[in-house]
Amino acid sequence: MEKIRTLRGFRDILGEDIEKFKRIESASRRYLDLLGFTEIEIPVLESTDLFARSIGDTTDIVEKEMFTFTDLGGDSVTLRPEATAGVVRAYLQSGLHAKERISKLFTIGPMFRHERPQKGRFREFHQVDVEVFGTDDPFIDAELLWMISLLLGDLGIKRYTMEVNSVGCKLCREEFRAVLVSYFETRQDRLCEDCLRRLHRNPLRIFDCKNRQCIEVSSESPLLFDYLCAGCSGHFQGFLAHMNDFGVPVTVNKRLVRGLDYYTKTVFEITSDELGAQKAFTAGGRYDNLVEEMGGPKTPAIGFAIGMERLALLAGNEEGPRKPVCFFAYLGEKAKAYLPLMAKDFIGQGMSLRYSYEGKSLKSQMRYADGLGADFVLILGDEEIERKVIIVRNMKEKDQFELPLDPPGLAAVLKERFRKE
Ligand SMILES: [Zn+2]
Ligand SMILES: [Zn+2]
Fold first, then answer.
1. Residue 192 C-alpha to ligand 1 middle, in angstroms?
2. How far does residue 114's CA lie from ligand 2's centre (Å)?
3. pTM greater than 0.90 (yes/no)
4. In what order do the strands lie in the sheet with 399-404?
5. Span from the CA of 223 to the centroid of ligand 1 (angstroms)
6. pLDDT tier at 323, thresholds 50, 70, 90
7. What pLDDT is stored for residue 321 in this prediction?
8. What is residue 278's predicted lDDT score, i.e. its pLDDT?
9. Domains and their CATH numbers in the chain
10. Rounded to the nearest whole angstrom, what is the distance from the C-alpha of residue 262 to the centroid of ligand 1?
């Protein structure tokens, strides 16, 4: 029979890959916890309207990349392509906005986009998603980037660029929109069909187009940055000053726009040349109007998402301090009877104990222990039981010694020994 395989762009995560994911997760959690963020879990499947309304129905994500289908009840549902929309929905639905002046939330999990699979890009991918509600102070914008720099440092990632820009507010965007439309109108013949459609509905989205000619046309367009109102310009200068205070270098990229409609003021992307053409592995920005547009009170907010697959490509296979692994090799039925006692003793002490289930010869058990990377092998047979001892072989030093056969105390003795080494 033909074997069933994962869908295109989907994959299993195991072995070294899952170890990297765990490192990224635990480092993220450490800094998020220190800075007062709390975790939230939101559904993977939501109403399609949620994403069409928040991300914007003229964006590439909503137009081309969502896993949308009609469920058995006839409702249009979508696998979340990003987390912000769902977190905003949860923030309002749970009434957090009425309980907390500032809410700092994060969620970690899979997202889904029907994109062409490429290096480090999958149709199911994972993100650490961070959102802050309740303040438009540029200090929080800087705090987020500083926190990311701590996390990257922790993971041993040094070569990256933090690109930042301001995409303004409704006020400055309105003025710019007219400038942009007239710029693109005179170059309509060079725009693709999608962009022609976007020209009057949402001209800013032309910047996201991946068509070569469209990229050429937009690369010479006027810059929103030059049309920022006094408020937005002051906000951005404040943000840059705080980045300077934190000692985290950033690069202003006036052409940086994010492919979602809801962004306002600060936007950023963290890129690495090691990732090839699509080099961003973290991205985010401020979205001061989204909560209100989703039916909530006026609430400034900012957030970002780290692409875990992309970050894993950059993070090395660093080995942290390891807990010792002990292996129990038993010979014969009498010795096997000690297995539950040994297991209870070691696991109770928070030490790892491995063993074979079939017993077999000492040679085969030693080979198994070696393959597991055991630090100590405890050997017990009839002779040792008679003498009330157990042999402890140090696999690194290749020597061995005996300890009294006393399972409720053995693990503690070995733990002490390992601590001294
Ligand atoms: Zn403005
Ligand atoms: Zn185009």
1. 30
2. 19
3. no
4. 352-355, 325-330, 376-380, 389-394, 399-404
5. 14
6. confident
7. 62
8. 81
9. 16-169+229-314 (3.30.930.10), 325-415 (3.40.50.800)
10. 14
